[in-house]
Amino acid sequence: MARAPLLQLTDISLTFGGDPVFEDLSLVVQTGDRLALVGRNGSGKSTLMKVMAGLVEPDSGAVIAGPGVSVGYMEQEPDLSGFETLGDFAAHGLDPGEMYKVERAGEGLKFDPARPVATASGGERRRAALARLMAEEPELMLLDEPTNHLDIEAIAWLESELKGTRTAFVIISHDRAFLRNLTRATLWIDRGAVRRQEIGFEGFEAWRDQIWEEEDMQRHKLNRKIKAEARWAVEGISARRKRNQGRVRALQDLRAERSAQITRQGTAAMALEAGPKSGRKVIEATGIAKKFGDKQILRDFSITVQRGDRIALVGPNGVGKTTLLNMMIGKEQPDTGEIKLGTNLELALFDQARAQLDGNMTLWESLTGDPDMRVSGKADQVLVRGQPKHVVGYLKEFLFDEAQARAPVRSLSGGEKARLLLAKIMARSSNLLVLDEPTNDLDVETLDLMQELLSTYDGTVLLVSHDRDFLDRVAATTIAMEGDGRATVYAGGWSDYLAQRGQDDFSDSVVKSKPGKAEPKAEKKQSTSGLSFTEKHRLEALPGEIERLEAEIGKLEELLSDAELFTREPVKFQKATDALVQRHEKLQNAEEEWMALEEKAQG
Questions:
Q1: pLDDT in tens, 160-199
Q2: Where are the chain's structural domains?
Q3: H-type helices in 341-490, by residue range?
């Protein structure tokens, strides 16, 4: 006999501020499900998870948990008010004899149960919330970005726990390796609809791209049909008005169908511009050491950073990665040893704490108030890589809408704050880019674009991250900080570091969770598509460009169908004729480019 589902959502609709988030959404979570919940930033992943947890009431529809099923939820910003210590919060609702579960989770997740809530950081609060959920052992766990603020060892512990549990779970995460290792099916939120595939995150991107390709093909066919019907209407409708009203209505229906289609959100128009070249030697550290009280952060460390290097710093939380990073760029001085910075350096810094963002400012003020972006005498413009741009237009390039421009920064989600900080950084040229935990809260598509930009950036990159996939894609050198002041330089990214270091000191979950060196992500992608990242995005963008050109051609042809236009407005007629010729040329070039890329993609 089939078991009842753990959780069922039926015909869920939800509206915030007039815009529908979901309409007629239905999904089922079964016993044993291990689901990745994916979608663009702002698509409603966290909102859907809160609906599943019973924390957000939908406008219509039903949320039904199975008989006796307990649902546990770990949110991004847990409320610890009313609790004195992190341990008190994590153990809430447990029997006294089950306190060992919190202590065990605390050890694996590296948080101190005795830490007062009043002095705990955001990361410690989230780890306590995760420990509480793991200790509760509900039948269904809902995990919203559980790896944020965890170091790689803690992520490995969590992976091991989730692999061994019989509990069903739904995970929102930007960490590709984490999702690949744990999930067996994927829920994809796209434009208010949820699709499910019975393959884990490993197969998500190929599945998504196939759906988008089919959509583009259908849209392309619909536009060609509308174009043909519109040409018929222009050329002969007056002579056939009585006999063909049905065909006219069909044309109207086709246009209504196209208008009803929801355009998918584009990729942020991020760009990195390297400034004047720095000197060949960017940083030279010789015998540096650093100590805080009795804690040795670094001892006798030396490194030379050359122009164009991609260097990642890895290690447990609190080991001193950010301290070493700050010493390398001159923001902090070593106790002993010497650091020499190269010549002609232009630094851009993405800081882990997002300290460059003032939560009380609006997005508009955050950009226009930046001295490096201010345009003298223009309150509505910002300077972007030397060129003035309207502040709203620039925000739109990073996927913010006009209404958000006057909203306070504190109202933004984690991913939106990261995009705003990237907008500030990328407005100026640089030749030394310092990224301290840049991957937190960014969606997969934005991470893809950032990785592509870093690969073509004509400058030097220093990076701190716990995202193994990101490290493998970006880093050419890894500095491993392993405690007690030890820092060792390894060639390559995370996988190469593990191979050189040896795997004995890491859990099996870490070893299995990383993409193997024999099949790196970039090579795998290249072998399946035959396209570079830039070409792939161009192939995705071309159907939309072709659609736009066809729409413009249709309008121009409709305008020129007026037989009296030439005599009535000859200048307008000539401009429209010239524009029509140009659009046809652009359309032909775009279609030829699409065909060439499509053939290349097919091998």
A1: 999 989 899 999 998 999 999 999 999 999 877 889 999 9
A2: 7-206, 281-505, 530-603
A3: 363-368, 391-397, 414-426, 444-456, 468-474
